[in-house]
Amino acid sequence: MATEPYKMWMGGLEGEGQAEPLAIEDPSTGEIFAHCHAASPEDVNTAIKAAHAVFKSGIWSKAPRHVRADTLDRIADLLTANLPRLIDLEVRQTGRAVREMKAQVPTLTKWFKYYASLIRVEERSVMPTVGKLHNWIERVPLGVVGLVTPFNHPMLIAVKKIAPALAAGNSVVLKPSELTPLTSLELGKLFKLAGLPDGVFWVVPGEGGSTGKALVGHGLVRKVDVTGGTAAGRAIGGIVGGNLGRFTAELGGKAPLVVFDSTEIELAVNGIAFGAFVASGQTCVAATRIIVQNSVLEPLVKRLGEKAKSIERRMGSPQNMECMMGPLISAKQLLNVRILVDDAVDAGAKLLTGGQRLSGPSPLDNTDFSSGYFYPPTILLSGPQTRITATRIWKEEAFGPVIVVVGFDTEAEALALANDSDFGLGAAIWTKDLSQAFRVSEGIEAGICWVNTHHRNDASSPWGGVKESGVGSENGVDAYNAYTTTKSTIINYAAPEEGLVSDDWFREGAGEVRYG
């Protein structure tokens, strides 16, 4: 157990916060294993003002592109060198299985390398003009940007925002989830070692209602990028809009996964299990609504139930490499999942697997399930009198390892079920029919659509939703552009004698004059 509390990252130095310290819990044991200083609104104001002053100084915002790119590359190298301890800390604070973190965390270097490459090759546009004018466009940083990240992928989601923000030359103030702030603080130390100037990057842990509100509502913050729930996103968007700031939000999801009868059943079952149960279902793109052609519904459900029970048998300590799935993040999250599942069962839905909090010793490694927030893979089906699509869990984001399965007969019915949601972040289709894949993917209302796979993510590929799943997107050129504004420079290179003829607006007489 840590003897000293983690401190805030104040632009290059560790600092103590004025707010009540955060207690960081290991969700697999219920143990408070660390404490962390938290930022008060006054601390946030100090950070933003200092970050703004550093931005205005130009030490990073006006640094040559190759300098910024080289720094991002060094960050990627330092991440690689520090992977073991970062993975251990990520597992401890999130409860995510170590096998997941060993697969995910090493990929974070891709974001820094991608945006380093992007700014090295970025070209200026030259606009067509009339007359002897030269008009070029360049992208310039916005200023101080505020980033708000959730508990489920602390480093991944932070890095997806930080890399393009820094590449563009902004100063960054990050507020991580109060449940999982520790690895974000470690990033600050690595950035300093990589040569990022002091004052460019800040981490202000704290509660959303105080620390987060102070960050997103500050007049000097020119852009806010948030990943979180839809209700929080709406509230933050209203605040940012009042300051005429930029806003990007990746919010809730209720991803459909459509299985057609041409699909290889075993492949589809493996894809469903991954899409639904990775990260204990705590992802915005989790495959939670499984829509299966009736001709293959029975064998698929049977095999899916067997897969879910196999995963449950191999749940245990997240630090065990043989553990397939860890706990939910908190008692609050566990309660939310239980309420939605119980509501569906009370309404008549059929419970195929799971449905109860785990207790007693783990069959895998004797981990005491009762001490943590373990919930097994859970599958819900329509009951004799109840169609699962009428229950709350069909509509509401559970953020846990729970899926609902429904059948369909026609492609049109499958599309209607897939689009029967207020959300539109991720979706997936499983089919061997290429024409069908094109038709259905085109008709699905989602910002990301996978065919015969799920959760694929790359620094170059846009990641964002439609409807209530958010505004704008992460990744790719668009994300970089969203951290900049365009500046148009127009130079008149006409000779003085030409200007005397054409540019005397108020000359004597009624001759023609130019406009524009």
Automatic annotation (TrEMBL):
InterPro entries: Ald_DH/histidinol_DH, Ald_DH_C, Ald_DH_CS_CYS, Ald_DH_CS_GLU, Ald_DH_N, Aldehyde_DH_dom. It comes from the Eukaryota. Keywords: Oxidoreductase. This is aldehyde dehydrogenase (NAD(+)). Belongs to the aldehyde dehydrogenase family. It is an enzyme of class 1 (oxidoreductase). One of its GO terms (molecular function) is aldehyde dehydrogenase (NAD+) activity. It catalyses: an aldehyde + NAD(+) + H2O = a carboxylate + NADH + 2 H(+). Its EC number is 1.2.1.3. Residues 19-488 form the Aldehyde dehydrogenase domain. It comes from Amniculicola lignicola CBS 123094. The active site is at 250.
